[in-house]
């Protein structure tokens, strides 16, 4: 069977491109290089080649698992995959591919990379999927100018800097011939002020000339939090002239801001047009599932024991930004250390009482359940109630039926009527199918638990 999967891998990839919500760059980077190495007892094992894919195990198991499984089952007819395992190529390891010595060398040259941001550690969801895909596309094709400039915007703490660092890291690692410069607007402003001061001391313009040479000789410029430059006359003029020079030379420019160009009243119309001529992408606050994945990342990074109920409590109540999630997690950790107590739900509630405001309970309806499920699978609500029977729609539809049965007082007849006018036997069959998967597939059980928590926190 693994040989058939190997020989038809191209068809499986084509299916993903046509039928899943995974971006083209993510498919090319993380999924296409996979290789089927065994298929026994309905368990498929796919091999990761880190030299091509990087350390993408977490992305494959948490983001793309379901889509890969559906794609394989759709192309290899008659097979029902019970489980997919991902393993590293035998001569691969994180230490051999991306060892500490290489990382330290990178950090010595580019100190901002010390935060460890990369595409592999960025947690994606519908709230940031487009920004992630655009950033990855630019990183993979820095000389093609697919989006120039790429303008990322959103409230503080949502991952703009993470994506900026990820773009820089990817280009530095895969295109060492290119000159990459990442800078915050604060550092840019400080360097402009220092150059002006030096000019006055030396009675010439050599400092400004050197500054311009530094910024205008790069292949990729990434500038973070551009809003802090707008309105500062000298810095703004210097940046705009740098932007124009690089833009005319077809160099890649990536900008981040807390607001889109249209909401910057002090921005000159010429540059509002320039900024908008590339791709503008906003990043929204994380949903519950994304918050849980981010918190689990923090937990693994800190190597501490935290029960799932504690993470669920934080994810349910802290919703505004990734930065606030991290702050809440660290505050709970600090309370635990200070009091020499194990991290429990009671301790977390006490630690975060000044950060959490109680919400009023929301009525659980079929429509609300459909909204949550379609958001998770990145489908439209119309698809769930339609007559379409593709696996990518039928499976989420059955999940809706199951959740309606579990979380509402409606009969199977009433549920069927609200989900596209289906009869009660269809609902009973769908619920039975999901119950079977919950009992046999831990991945499905975890997903259902997450959905229930999102619907009824």
Describe the structure.
With 457 residues, this protein is of the alpha/beta class. The protein has four domains: 2-93, 2-Layer Sandwich (GMP Synthetase, Chain A, domain 3), CATH 3.30.300.180; 104-282, P-loop containing nucleotide triphosphate hydrolases (Rossmann fold, 3-Layer(aba) Sandwich); 288-351, Helicase, Ruva Protein, domain 3; 366-455, Chromosomal Replication Initiator Protein Dnaa, Chain: A. The protein has 24 helices and eight strands. The protein has helices spanning 2-7, 9-19, 24-31, 50-53, 57-62, 65-75, 94-97, 100-109, 129-140, 160-174, 185-202, 206-216, 233-248, 269-276, 288-302, 308-317, 322-339, 345-351, 366-377, 381-385, 391-407, 412-418, 424-440, 442-455; strands spanning 35-40, 43-48, 83-88, 150-153, 180-184, 220-224, 252-257, 279-282. A five-stranded parallel beta sheet has the order 5-6-7-4-8, sandwiched between helices. Strands 1-2-3 form a three-stranded mixed beta sheet. Strand 1 and strand 2 form a beta hairpin. Helix 23 (424-440) crosses helix 24. The relative contact order is 0.08. Mean pLDDT is 84; it is low at 92-98.
Integer-rounded radius of gyration: 25 Å
- The structural class is alpha/beta
Quaternary state, please? single chain
| Tally of helical runs | 24
- End-to-end gap: 42 Å
What is the tally of beta strands?
A: 8
For the biggest sheet, the summary is: 5 strands, parallel
Strand content of the residues, in percent?
5-15%
| CATH architecture identity of the largest domain | 3-Layer(aba) Sandwich
> Fraction of residues in helices?
55-70%
- Count the domains: 4
**Spatial strand sequence of the major β-sheet:** 5-6-7-4-8
Shape: globular
CATH superfamily of the largest domain: P-loop containing nucleotide triphosphate hydrolases
Mean pLDDT: 84
CATH topology of the largest domain: Rossmann fold
């Amino acid at each position: 069977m693994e040989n058939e999967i190997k020989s038809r891998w191209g068809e499986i990839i084509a299916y993903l491109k046509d039928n899943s919500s995974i971006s083209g760059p993510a498919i090319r980077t993380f999924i296409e290089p996979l290789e089927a190495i065994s298929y026994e007892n309905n368990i498929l094992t796919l091999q990761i080649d880190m030299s091509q894919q990087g350390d993408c195990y977490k992305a494959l198991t948490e983001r793309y698992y379901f889509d890969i499984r559906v794609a394989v089952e759709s192309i290899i007819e008659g097979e029902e995959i019970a489980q997919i395992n991902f393993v590293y190529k035998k001569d691969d390891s994180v230490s051999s591919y991306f060892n500490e010595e290489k990382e330290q060398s990178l950090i010595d040259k580019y100190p901002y990379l010390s935060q460890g941001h990369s595409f592999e550690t960025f947690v994606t969801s519908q709230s940031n999927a487009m920004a992630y895909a655009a950033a990855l596309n630019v990183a993979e094709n820095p000389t093609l100018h697919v989006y120039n400039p790429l303008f990322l915007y959103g409230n503080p703490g949502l991952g703009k800097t993470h994506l900026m660092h990820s773009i820089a890291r990817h280009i530095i690692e895969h295109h060492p011939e290119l000159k990459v410069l990442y800078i915050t607007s604060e550092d840019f402003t400080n360097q402009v002020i220092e150059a002006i001061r030096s000019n006055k001391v030396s009675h010439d313009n050599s400092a400004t000339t050197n500054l311009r040479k530094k910024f205008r000789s790069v292949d990729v410029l990434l500038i973070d939090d551009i809003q802090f430059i707008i309105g500062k006359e000298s810095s703004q003029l210097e940046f705009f002239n740098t932007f124009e020079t690089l833009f005319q030379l077809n160099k890649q420019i990536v900008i981040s801001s807390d607001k889109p160009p249209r909401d910057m009243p002090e921005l000159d119309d010429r540059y509002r047009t320039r900024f908008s001529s590339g791709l503008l992408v906003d990043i929204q606050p994380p949903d519950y599932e994304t918050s849980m994945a981010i918190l689990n990342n923090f937990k693994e990074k800190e190597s501490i024991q935290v029960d799932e109920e504690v993470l669920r409590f934080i994810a349910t109540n802290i919703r505004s930004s990734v930065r606030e999630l991290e702050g809440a997690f660290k505050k709970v950790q600090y309370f635990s250390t200070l009091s020499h107590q194990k991290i429990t739900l009671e301790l977390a509630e006490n630690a975060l009482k000044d950060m959490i405001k109680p919400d009023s309970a929301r009525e659980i309806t079929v429509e609300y359940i459909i909204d949550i499920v379609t958001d998770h699978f990145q489908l439209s609500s119309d698809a769930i109630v339609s007559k379409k029977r593709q696996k990518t729609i039928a499976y989420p539809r059955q999940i809706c039926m199951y959740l309606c049965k579990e979380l509402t007082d409606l009969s199977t007849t009433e549920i069927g009527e609200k989900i596209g006018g289906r009869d009660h036997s269809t609902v009973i069959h769908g619920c039975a199918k999901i119950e079977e998967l919950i009992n046999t597939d831990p991945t499905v059980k975890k997903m259902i638990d997450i959905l229930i928590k999102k619907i009824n926190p």
